[in-house]
């Protein structure tokens, strides 16, 4: 749950994780605040996750995946697709309807 300082470079996996969460959240029509509420996570903490600033605990990863209505394998496939893409690129995902 550590917050990186502005001088630290963000871990590529944290950035890809956050980018994937943001893309999937928006694809489902959630605002950041509504999604954080759905997950039971503070909105400002969720913002840090989406920016790749938070190295979050497994329990919070599970809350986010559940909030997206996905199986962990589906989420991590989307994360795999997002890794290695340039900043700002959208992961290629196949969302299932809620």
Compact summary:
This is Helix-turn-helix domain-containing protein. This protein is mainly α and 98 residues long.
Structure description:
The protein is mainly α. The chain has a domain at 10-77: Orthogonal Bundle (434 Repressor (Amino-terminal Domain)). It has helices at 12-27, 32-39, 43-50, 58-67, 72-82, and strands at 2-3, 54-55. Strands 1-2 form a two-stranded antiparallel sheet. Helix 1 crosses helix 5, helix 2 crosses helix 3 and helix 2 packs across helix 4. The chain is globular. Residues 21-75 form the HTH cro/C1-type domain.
The CATH architecture classification of the domain at 10-77 is Orthogonal Bundle
CATH topology of the domain at 10-77: 434 Repressor (Amino-terminal Domain)
Strand order of the largest sheet: 1-2
Shape, per Cα inertia axes:
globular
Task: Give the low-pLDDT segments.
Answer: 93-98
CATH class group of the domain at 10-77: Mainly Alpha
Radius of gyration: 12 Å
Alpha-carbon distance between the termini? 29 Å
Structural class: mainly alpha
Question: Describe the biggest sheet?
Answer: 2 strands, antiparallel
Q: What percent of residues are in strands?
A: under 5%
DSSP helix count?
A: 5
Helix content: 40-55%
CATH superfamily of the domain at 10-77: lambda repressor-like DNA-binding domains
The total strand number stands at: 2
Order of helices and strands: EHHHEHH
Oligomer type: single chain
